[in-house]
């Protein structure tokens, strides 16, 4: 776990005031107030560098990839494949050109694992272990497989601080074929001890699929250090565009998997009596891929690397600490913030219950002050049931947020409390 | 820009703070129906006694935001003691009020369809007599906040289902 939570003491401080200028949307107003965007866990805003890279590609280079022999088609293919390698290097992939699969989003990446790996490795009575804090994207594909193939789902519970309870880990993993775990909860912010879990799962003979949607955008991630087998994340939560997600898989595991979707691009040969699938990673990329979006994701990676993921993490730990302190100082027992109390154990995601005011109503009042937070079950209904709520309000940070954003949130929450008092 | 006062009218806040007909009737004999808002996780339970074609009693349970709770409370007060036909008419009128503006919204702006628009099409907008809705008219402002329409209609869809089940018994 040290790889995720070690304090980035040496990281240079983030110059948020300067960085904010890179994000055009943050200059707008909402209902007469400057926007306070606190929903990066749902989707982050994009810097000009990403928007420009996509536009420049479209204006100068666009053609379909892996097809034409003409100059711009070759350039487009080269740039698309270069983005793949950049993304792979960003997460420490040993063989980035072969281990990075572009998908529609992280949900599709997890479905790919359930479909291609699950259908070839799981049968009646086989066990898949999930945690109580998983996003629906890492639950429902396994439910579907359970209904289809009769596999058994087991659950790793959480404690009241939103941490995984690992006392019974060996028993839960006994006989398991797969462990699905989120690196960082999209509700609680909890950073899970993924490296330890992966080691235990491997000892039990299970492969590990990690949902890294909330970790890759906010802290340094190294798949080799994590020791997982598959890792899924999404571009639009890491300053990139919508429409593209990523599945990283160990080369030797990907190489033996059958295709996911069928069509163009994923084949070497098609005959009347069958087909021969392409090599990895293209085997899993049927049809024309999100090319412009891959260019945008590559630019987002370059942007994050220039800022420095250690700096992003250090900034968000400091901002989370400020938010926890400020919210508790102002509202005391009227606010119940879910997840680990120590900011070093968590990411910049604060889900909370606010007195008797329903999250929808909290969010509605906050909107009047230009404050954007999410209200709902956050695609984590098993977790909501464990917490004993139907919904929470959630404020989440990106590298562009600062203490002023937290202050605005606190003021707007004060107004919400007064309104419903 | 619609203001908060359009959404949170005093009557709404009153019904939210002091919900009427709260609880559950014993079922059976009461018909018990659950409604869910998949967007936000809100849940509502409507139990109702229908005797001789009249909604003799109705109770509301479950959790939700001020709009869904007050709408349910207002609904329970409005249909209690009414005939089933009158209750159905009120449902159609209420959903018509909620869909006048819905029809002018971009497609999909109200989220996953639950038949609201299709059912509401039975009522022509000009035929809706908002005055006949009495206190329920306070919820009219909700249509200016598209994502909240589902909150307001949740209990009404659940009641409609309950009336259907009561008729089937």
Query: Based on the structure, what is the oligomeric state of the protein chains?
Result: heterodimer
Overall number of structural domains of chain B: 1
Beta fraction of chain A: 15-25%
Distance between the termini of chain B: 47 Å
Mean pLDDT of chain B: 80
Gross CATH architecture of the largest domain in chain A: 3-Layer(aba) Sandwich
Helix coverage percent of residues of chain B? Answer: 40-55%
Assign the structural class of chain B, choosing from mainly alpha, mainly beta, alpha/beta, alpha+beta, or little secondary structure. Answer: alpha+beta
In DSSP terms (H or I, runs of 4 or more residues), the helix count of chain B works out at 6
- In DSSP terms, counting alpha (H) and pi (I) runs of 4 or more, how many helices of chain A? 16
Which fold name corresponds to the CATH topology of the largest domain in chain A? Aspartate Aminotransferase, domain 2
Which spans of chain A have pLDDT < 50 for at least 5 consecutive residues?
Answer: 1-8
Class of the largest domain in chain A, according to the CATH hierarchy? Alpha Beta
Distance between the termini of chain A: 43 Å
Over all CA atoms, what is the radius of gyration of chain B?
Answer: 15 Å
- CATH topological fold name of chain B: Sufe protein. Chain: A
Shape of chain B: globular
With strands numbered from the N-terminus, the spatial order across the biggest sheet of chain B is: 1-2-3
């Amino acid at each position: 776990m040290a790889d995720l939570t070690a304090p980035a003491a040496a990281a240079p401080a983030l110059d948020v005031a300067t960085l904010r200028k890179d994000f055009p949307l943050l200059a707008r107003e909402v209902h007469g107030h400057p926007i306070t965007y606190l929903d990066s866990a749902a989707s982050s805003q994009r810097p000009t560098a990403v928007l420009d890279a996509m536009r420049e590609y479209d204006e100068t280079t666009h053609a379909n990839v892996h097809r034409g022999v003409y100059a711009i088609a070759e350039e487009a293919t080269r740039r698309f494949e270069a983005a793949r390698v950049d993304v792979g290097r960003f997460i420490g992939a040993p063989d980035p050109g072969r281990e990075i699969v572009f998908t529609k989003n992280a949900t599709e990446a997890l479905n790919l694992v359930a479909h291609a790996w699950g259908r070839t490795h799981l049968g009646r009575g086989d066990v898949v272990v999930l945690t109580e804090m998983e996003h629906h994207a890492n639950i429902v594909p396994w439910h579907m497989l359970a209904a289809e193939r009769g596999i058994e789902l087991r659950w790793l519970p959480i404690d009241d601080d939103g941490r995984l309870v690992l006392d019974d880990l060996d028993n839960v993993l006994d006989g398991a074929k797969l462990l699905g775990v989120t690196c960082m909860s999209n509700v609680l912010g909890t950073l899970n001890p993924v490296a330890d879990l992966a080691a235990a799962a491997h000892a039990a003979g299970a492969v590990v699929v990690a949902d890294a949607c909330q970790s890759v955008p906010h802290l340094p991630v190294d798949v080799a250090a994590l020791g997982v087998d598959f890792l899924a994340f999404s571009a639009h939560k890491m300053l990139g565009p919508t429409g593209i997600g990523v599945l990283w898989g160990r080369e030797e595991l990907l190489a033996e998997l059958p295709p996911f979707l069928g069509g163009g691009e994923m084949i070497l040969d098609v005959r009347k009596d069958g087909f021969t699938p392409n090599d990895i990673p293209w085997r899993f990329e049927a049809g024309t891929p999100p090319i412009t979006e891959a260019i945008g994701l590559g630019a987002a990676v370059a942007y994050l690397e220039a800022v420095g993921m250690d700096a992003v993490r250090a900034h968000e730990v400091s901002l989370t600490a400020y938010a926890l302190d400020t919210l508790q100082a102002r509202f005391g027992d009227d606010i119940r913030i879910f997840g680990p109390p120590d900011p070093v154990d968590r990411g910049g995601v604060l889900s909370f219950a606010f007195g008797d005011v329903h999250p929808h109503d909290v969010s509605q009042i906050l909107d009047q002050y230009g404050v954007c937070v999410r209200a709902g079950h956050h695609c984590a209904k098993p977790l909501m049931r464990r917490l004993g709520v139907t919904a929470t309000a959630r404020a989440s940070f990106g590298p562009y947020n600062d203490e002023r954003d937290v202050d605005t949130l606190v003021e707007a929450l004060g107004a919400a409390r007064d309104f419903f008092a | 820009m619609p203001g908060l006062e359009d959404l949170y009218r005093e009557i709404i806040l009153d019904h939210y703070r002091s919900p009427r007909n709260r609880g559950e009737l014993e079922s059976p004999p009461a018909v018990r129906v659950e409604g869910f808002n998949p967007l936000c996780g809100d849940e509502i339970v409507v139990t109702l006694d229908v005797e001789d074609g009249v909604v003799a009693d109705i109770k509301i349970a479950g959790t939700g935001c001020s709009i869904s709770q007050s709408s349910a409370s207002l609904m329970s007060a409005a249909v209690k003691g009414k005939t089933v036909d009158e209750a159905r008419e009120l449902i159609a009128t209420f959903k018509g009020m909620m869909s006048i503006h819905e029809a002018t919204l971009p497609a999909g702006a109200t989220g996953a369809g639950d038949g609201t628009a299709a059912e509401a099409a039975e009522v022509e907008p000009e035929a809706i007599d908002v005055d006949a809705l009495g206190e329920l008219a306070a919820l009219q402002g909700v249509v200016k906040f598209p994502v909240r329409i589902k909150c307001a209609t949740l209990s009404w869809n659940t009641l409609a289902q309950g009336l259907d089940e009561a008729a089937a018994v």
